[in-house]
Amino acid sequence: MTSTAAAFPLWPLLILALLIALGWRQSRDRLVQPKTLVRLAVIMLALSLYGVASAFGVQALPLLAWAAGLSAVLTLGRHALAPRILAREGMAVRLQGSWLPLALMLGIFADKFVLGVAAGVGSPVVHEAWFVAAASLSFGLFSGAFAARAAAVRRAVSAAAA
After folding, report:
1. In this structure, are residues 42 and 112 in contact, taking their beta carbons and an 8 Å threshold?
2. How high is the pLDDT of residue 44?
3. Element of type H or E holding 150
4. CA distance 157 to 143
5. Overall domain count for the chain
């Protein structure tokens, strides 16, 4: 007889611990290169899009829902999600600590976890159009928030340099 605990993989817990550590680190004021934020945003967008495509296939509904979430955040949330720049130090900026990156990372983790569990148990909900659209939209929103934050810092640095 196999126990339930033995069937659960440990790697999601390791990823969760890593995300919590990264989020906690971002809760403190820190010096950041704007290029680093852009790279992070690009990585999050690529992973998010890959996650949508691998979970639901390269089909119109999931890709359009993902793009809608991304566009909504970039358009509507760019000012609200902008990190507070405390000072400019050469080509770097000192950002005020924020718990928002942790919340975004945990949101992505929760979405991916729920999707993985639903697919793993063979739930038919993963094939329902509303679920595909909602999950894809959510991935677009969360990863788009990283892009909105990076774009806000780049705009601020460019404006200060001009």
Report:
1. no
2. 87
3. helix 129-161
4. 22
5. 1
